[in-house]
């Protein structure tokens, strides 16, 4: 429509109304000057002048001009309608984008919260638990090694004690055998008995509980000449009592050794079971650590993805707002232009219906 207006104005330019004509009052000249600032207003005046110069009827001219003004108003209504439709689309799009941005921000917050308050503490906790398991394994193996060394040392002590007891018992048996054959003791026999007692004393020097018996026997054999059969019987009884004590002691240390071996074997089984449990726990903990590391990687990837999505949505929202702002500027400028044209057209229509305009056209015709 505006292109058509420009073309018509070029054609009708030669017939432009002279706003300086004496026919017009100052008020009319101002109105004409304002009308001439509008393409449609200028077109209407020029068209009206041409129409009347060619014998047209003013009522027909009014009808045509009113029709043209109506088309302008209809076009303006279309502009309003299109802009209202664009506004509806804009509002829906903004609402959608803002909702998606809000959802993304919530997802991003949750992802950061899950990373900071769940995964990282979990990672640190798993690492501490694994370190504790490794310390438990090291302590378990150290305890087993120490128990094994102690068992070996205790067994060596046991074997030495058994040997000492057996040596002492053998010496006692030898003394008893010798004493049982004495009828008329000789110096050699007495010395042999004393030698065996020294041997017994040396064998049992680590066992204080037997030293008193050995000491008494040594004193008896030194003081006795074994001629007295009563004294001899007392010596034999003393040797038998010592032998019984040694056998009981040997039985006790043998029982203690058996119990110590059983306790050690039970401890070994328990330590190995604990070690196996620790090893299984390490396998499970390493699996948890791997799963945690994978979850951390996935969460960081998700955070990057959400950041990118959020940037895209914000960019789309900004682009939509910019596009709508531009459309609004265009709309406002277009509406202003249409209102200007319609207002000028109405002013022109009002002016051309005044007698002065008709007198002006008639005076132009007479002058021609």
Secondary structure layout plus pairing:
Blueprint: H1 2-12, H2 26-36, H3 39-53, H4 58-180, H5 187-203, H6 208-223, H7 229-352, H8 355-367
Word description of this protein:
The protein is mostly helical. Helices cover 90% and strands 0% of the residues. The protein has eight helices and no strands. Mean pLDDT is 80; it is low at 1-24.
Q: Report the principal-axis shape.
A: rod-shaped
Q: Count the DSSP helices.
A: 8
Overall number of strands: 0
Query: Percent of residues in beta strands?
Result: under 5%
Q: Report the uncertain regions.
A: 1-24
Profile the largest sheet.
Answer: none
Instruction: State the helical fraction.
Output: over 70%
How far apart the termini lie comes to 33 Å
Keywords: Coiled coil, Signal
Short summary of the structure?
Helices cover 90% and strands 0% of the residues. The protein is mainly α.
List the main descriptive attributes of the protein structure presented here.
mainly alpha; single chain; disordered N terminus; coiled coil; signal; 8 helices; 368 residues
